[in-house]
TrEMBL record:
Residues 2-29 form a coiled coil. Keywords: Coiled coil. It comes from the Bacteria. This is Mobilization protein.
């Protein structure tokens, strides 16, 4: 039994939606990996910590997101200050 044009369109749209979902999941995973690497390095290097804290404060504008970053920003600030205290 042959599929109607409408059935073929519905199947193509469903396939497109699955591909879009996979692409979004891949992009999200990539962001998580990059964010993890940058955060780890920032917590080791005062210069990167200063840059990351300033960038986050400048670009994260939603209150709910800012609240999520409070602890990280405190850690970054502490690392950025450690450069002045003679730590590497």
């Amino acid at each position: 039994m042959a599929r109607t044009i409408d059935q073929q369109i519905a199947e193509a749209q469903a396939r497109l939606n699955r591909l879009k979902t996979r692409a979004k999941a891949s992009e999200t995973r990539r962001k998580i990996i990059v964010g993890s690497v940058v955060t780890t390095e920032a917590l080791k290097d005062p210069k990167i910590a200063r840059w990351m804290a300033a960038t986050l404060r400048k670009t994260v504008t939603r209150e709910v997101d800012q609240k999520e970053l409070v602890g990280l920003l405190a850690d970054l600030d502490a690392k950025a200050q450690s450069a002045g205290a003679g730590e590497p």
